[in-house]
Amino acid sequence: MTALPDRRRVNGPSGVTSAPQFTYDATQVQDKGPTRSRVPGELRKIFLKSGLTPSASGSAYLELEPSLPPKATSLASTAPRSGLKLTCTVHGPRPLPRSAPFSHQIILTTRVKFAPFATQQRRGYVPDPNERELAAHLETALRGVLLAERWPKSGVDIIITILEGEEDCPTAHMTRRTEGWGTMTILSGCITVASAAIADAGIDCLDLVTGGMAALVPQPTGPPQLVLDPCPSDHEEIRAACVVAYAQSSDEITEVWAKGDGESSGANVSESLDFGPLLDNAVKAASMARLVLVEALKESMEAKLQMLTPSRAPESV
Question: Phi and psi dihedrals of 136, rounded to 5?
């Protein structure tokens, strides 16, 4: 007896198929190891656009281009290097349920989630400790600029989806001495894209906050060097790094996250390394990212005004 087909579902092909897998030829790539093609004080190119999700109160998309070796002309001639792609949606402010206790300020909820395909190692649906840590830092960074007293007994949800996250060890040339630094770069991008989405939602803030990152990178010859916007695939080792959320108009830092190994004896970073220049360079990187944020918000506002302005009909002669 033959089984009847299920007409309520789209049945797959009868034969077994497998998805193609594209690989690169390791003998023809030009990647000789982790090298930085940018000068120490240069950021990667940033693409930022707001107002992409109509169903949300505010939304934004941020993308950082993957880094290239100094003599590479395209990504096709190099080993695979990941970039950073983030989307942010803001839902609210909206009233809280009647069962919720009264709150004089707005209740801010942040969520950072990796897409299953964001990294080489497939991510699960349950939030891991890394995602919860990013959400906690993001909430602290945004709470310092929101005018929370204007929305009593209200709530706002900020959801960030990481479509592509920077890998700590994407190539065989890299060692475990660069593991964990890609998370700090993701936090810097999350702060900037969340600020753009909040401004797109029309939520009152004291200032625009942007994220910036600086790192202390050892050199083969000479003392360690301070670099802005470090990419884990560009450096063989990173000794210390710092991420800040900086509001330039009010000259305030709403969040600081710094870590480093220090000396081999396990001393604290503040004891073995000078934290002041590292913090100053992270603030400088945040100030440079603010220029992109302001231009993106200007373009979004001009597009909204153009849609609201009625077009005049041509006058008849």
Answer: -65, -45
The closest alpha carbon to 148, from 108, 107, 105, 110, belongs to: 105
87, 207, 286, 316 from 259: Cα distances, Å: 26, 27, 18, 69
Half-sphere exposure of 121 (CA within 13 A, CB side): 5
Binned average pLDDT, 10 residues per bin, the chain of 317 residues: 64 64 56 71 92 93 78 49 87 89 91 89 84 94 92 93 73 49 91 96 93 89 87 82 94 92 44 76 95 94 84 58
